[in-house]
Specification:
By secondary structure, the chain is of the alpha/beta class. 40% of the residues lie in helices and 14% in strands. The two termini are 38 Å apart. It holds the Pfam family Pantoate_transf.
């Protein structure tokens, strides 16, 4: 099945149209999202959503590959990005080995990795070996323990330097997370590849949100930048409660639902 987007069409969207990206972790939701968005990110946030872990750091290659395979099966026409888990790209050799696994064991179109100028030698090594790479700067979830928590990134000069370095290394797009809107605007203008914001204001080239946040299924906390477009948890609880009540009082199944 032909892809709706390629590296070239995504890059061409810069200064032309806003790009829409959402996370997905399974075939069911990927199929629902696919007609409505430009890109699907199989984010390591699944470690918190599916595995109830306090952060993303224990996500493994096997775990990420399993979910990416499911997403690609459910939405074969979508441009799908594999989020390289913590520890999978600490050096060029391991990064290439693991990225090759992504291409060989799934139909993901690209990989994403966190870090700026200090990761550019790895980005360059991957892109020179045929791997499409999305960068990620600003707030870095995989650095949460070393950074002492989730903190808004405000060093504009460093972030612009990181963005330009990643562009030079060959990324086709950059995620910019947890950055003040005025700084994000300047970063976006400093590079020719699309900048996808999450908690980075509106003056970027597109937006990404975690699906369970924006649909109201994840209730543990709500980041400031998340707009809930649905109260999913409430609706599910009400539906399951209605089902349970009907089973208890014998109202389900009726003849309409019996052979």
């Amino acid at each position: 099945m032909a892809k709706k987007h390629t590296i070239d069409t995504i890059k061409a969207a810069k200064n032309s149209e806003k790009l829409v990206m959402i996370t997905a972790y399974d075939a069911l939701f990927a199929k629902l999202f696919s007609p409505l968005v430009d890109m699907i990110l199989v984010g390591d946030s699944l470690n918190m959503i599916f595995a109830a872990k306090p952060d993303t750091l224990s996500a493994s290659m096997e775990q990420m590959l399993y979910h990416t395979q499911a997403v690609c099966a459910g939405a074969p026409e979508s441009f799908t990005i594999f989020d390289m888990p913590y520890g999978s790209y600490t050096n060029k050799k391991d990064a290439l080995k693991n990225a090759i696994r992504v291409y060989q064991e799934s139909y993901a179109d690209a990989v994403k990795l966190e870090g700026g100028k200090e990761k550019c030698h790895i980005v360059s090594h991957l892109t020179k070996n045929g791997i499409a790479v999305m960068g990620h700067i600003g707030l870095l979830p995989q650095h949460v323990r070393g950074a002492g928590g989730y903190k808004v990134a405000n060093n504009k000069d460093k972030l612009i330097e990181d963005a330009k370095a990643l562009e030079d290394a060959g990324v086709f797009a950059i995620i910019l997370e947890g950055v003040k809107a005025d700084i994000a605007k300047d970063i976006t203008a400093s590079v020719e590849v699309p900048v996808i914001g999450i908690g980075a204001g509106k003056d970027v080239d597109g937006q990404v949100l975690v699906w369970s946040d924006m649909l109201g299924f994840f209730e543990d906390f709500k980041p400031k930048f998340v707009k809930r477009y649905l109260n999913g948890a409430k609706l599910v609880k009400e539906a399951v409660a209605a089902y349970a009540q009907e089973v208890k009082n014998g109202r389900f199944p009726t003849k309409d639902y019996s052979y």
